[in-house]
Amino acid sequence: MNAASRGQPFSAVQWLNAVYCHPARPSALQRDVLTALAVKFIDWGTGTGYASIQMLAEFTRHTMSTVKRALRWGRQTLLLVQTRRGHRLGNGKVVASEWRLQLV
Q1: 97 and 52 in contact (C-beta within 8 Å)?
Q2: CATH number reported for the structural domain that contains residue 25 in this entry
């Protein structure tokens, strides 16, 4: 259960601590991607936000494969949930995926 759903603001600091102190901690580049997601793209009041792989790659200046590995790690450890998958619109624009940070 997310802290925001219990009426409390989400703590990005606690979430980042869970990432950095995880026994199977990801690489430094992947931690950078996850930190960018939490700090730049997530609403700290709800723990949710929108970001595409391309947005994260451009912001962090890491490769798209590094971003994909970081997001996969977050989903596998249950610290990150993709609540809505991004997609392309008919006019060529992209709708970013919706992400939720969670503490397990």
Answers
A1: yes
A2: 1.10.10.10
Per-residue pLDDT 10s for the chain (104 aa) are 444 444 455 688 899 999 999 999 999 999 999 999 999 999 988 899 999 999 999 999 999 999 999 999 999 999 999 998 887 777 877 779 999 999 87
Three-state secondary structure call for residue 30: helix
* Beta-strand relationship, 80-84 and 48-51: unpaired
Alpha-carbon separation of residue 44 from 10, 80, 102 (angstroms): 5, 14, 12
Residue 50: domain span: 3-101
**Number of domains present in the structure of the chain:** 1
Structure tokens at 57: 């790659």
How many other C-beta atoms lie within 10 A of the C-beta of residue 89? 8
